[in-house]
Amino acid sequence: MKGILYLAFAGLLLATVPEGGAEEKNGLQVNVTKRTLNRSDRRDSIYYTRYDRTQGYKVAIKGTAPRPFPEGEVSWTILVTKALGGNIEKYVGTEKLKALRPSESTELMVGAVPIGGYRYDRDYKDEMEYDISITHAGKETMRLTSTSNFAALAKRAVLIKPPEEEAQPEAPRSMTVTPLVPVTPARPGAAQPARPGTAATPTAPPTPTTPVTPATPATPAAGTTTPATPADAAGKPFDFFNLGNKKPAGGN
Question: Are 66 and 102 in contact (CB under 8 A)?
């Protein structure tokens, strides 16, 4: 009986111990534990259970140095090895880390990845591994990795994008629109203007107009006398009314 109670107490103790334990470096103490965010498991029969969960990691960070820490970033990568097929999926993200005073602590949730599998004679469930990097002012303060072969697994993994990134439509391609040029009806005989981007067609020069020759006065027929304007000997016109020699009234 005592042996059974001891085994039960030991199992309960192991269930409450945080995963991986806390690590301390460069004035920070960090503890990473797995968390289930959503559970939709179903039991199809007494022998078969289907796993359907959403899981991530809780990161507890505490400042142990006598100096404060400015704001930083927590960059994370989670690998999920699928129970069926052995394929590896990779999820990445970045979270903001608030400034920490000496002995102050904070908690972050990183990742929300689907975990599936089933239980028949034993558990066949997807396995999670993590790599977490904490940086301040662009320099890495601390890095935590759940397994030593994480880099080799990451090379085989396929990156899975969040649903909001996959749903974004493609940016429309730029198109150059040529504005329409209104066409004005040309007068008959006028030269047509060339369209933009089209070589102008040379127009034939106008045909010169033949000058009109003034009419030549008709030559009088033979034997016809043309009346001449009477003139005096000096070549002046003839004074019909004798105005040049007219005496004033009352004279002799």
Answer: yes
